[in-house]
Every structure is written in C-alpha cells, then in structure tokens.
Amino acid sequence: METLSVERDAGVVTVTLQRPAKKNAISHAMWTELPEVFAEVAANRDDRVLVITGSGDAFCSGQDLTDPENATRFQGLGGALASMRRIGDVALQLHGLPKPTIAAVNGVAAGAGCNLALGCDLVVASSAARFSQIFVQRGLTVDFGGTWLLPRLIGLHKAKEFAFFGDILSAVQAEDLGVVNRVVEPEALMHVVGEMAGRLARLAPLALSMMKRALNASFSMTMTEALENEAVAQASMFNSEDAAEAMAAFLEKRTPEFRGA
Question: Does residue 259 sit within a domain?
Fold first, then answer.
C-alpha cells in the first residue's frame, strides 16, 4: 500500500500510518486504503485484533489539508459533503469492526487523527503523545465521529470544552480526562500494546465480538432491550464450539484454544 504498512503476527494485525514527513496526516490515498484494510481484517477469520499506530514521531495529525486530491474533492458544497460522507463511512467501519481494536498513540493525535485513536476500543498512549480536537483552530467543526464519541467517553460538558477550545492535551491529561486507557513510556509502548493485543487474540473471538457489539449499542438501548440482547447473544455463546472448548479446557486444567466457532 502507498500510505500504510500491514503486519500480521499470531492473530494481531498492526497497521502503521506511513506518512512521517506529514506527521501521518490523512491523504486521499490513505482515506482509500484504510477502509480496504478494515474490510480485510473484518473478513479474515485468522485476524483477531487490529492495532493502529503511526510512523516516526506522530500518530496522526488529522486530514492532510495540503493534499491536492483532498483539496479538489472538497471544492464546492456538494463535493465536500460527498467527501465527508465517505470519511464518515470509514469511521463507521472502524466502529463496527467485529474485532477488538487498539490505538497505540506514539505522538500527536489531532483532529481526525485524534478521533481515529478514540474510535478504537482501547487507547494506549506514549507519555510523548498529545491529543487535540484542533478543528476550531482551523475554522472547522469536529468530524470522524468525534461529536458522537466524546460525550460518551467523557460526558457532554467536558466534550464541549475539549472541542470548543481545541487545546492540546498531554497524554497524562488525556488519561485523566478518560480518553486514554493507559500511559506508558515511549520505549515500552509497542511492547505493552503487543501484550494486550496478544492476550485478546488468544481469547474467544465470538464472545469478544458479541461484547463489543452490545457495549457499542448500549447508549441507544433501554435496560429491557439490553437484557434481551444479552439473552440472545449468550444463548448463541452457550451453543458455540468455543464455549465447549472452554469447559473442556477447564476440566482438563489446560489453556483453551479458541477457533471462533
């Protein structure tokens, strides 16, 4: 791929944004390649976990406003609206990916790059990472799912503060705010993320997928609807090969080997 590198190891797919000279800003080519990778990971049974990180000293500085192809496609209200809807589809694809996702934030994560990180299920940040909803500083409004993600992650008033001012938060400030799961030293980032991803890759894929779907939907459900959703999902799990394998492994005092069936 032109803008991404993709590596696979024991069920973990690591996608690295490869535009270090531009702080991994998202070009039109990257907007095209990201959904291709997301679709491939979703469909590949051997892919258990997706990790997203950046090359060089940045995670992702947002959309590349200097990319000629991006600029052309955003000319005129009609063209800009069509382009934003395509970008929205990428955000939905990441959100709905039926497998755990982890953002390994190694540096600046700004604008759409910040929301690319927050759109993952888990966010692990280097102590050198920085987070910003920088849109207002560019005369723009929040996109790539930020208006949906932020109130759910940190509450409405904090979301407004984060978005309205476009301030840059340190990794520790982002952790205190609740948008980062863990902050680690830069040299430990990929090791810690690798351990987390490896653990997830060895767990029951169907159960993780069901959990993710239910938790993502929880804010739009009543308690009654959530309980019914749990009942249907759990009934499926009780009758899965993975559940049978887990019980056999428990009785035999060994580690289960889940197949996702």
Answer: no
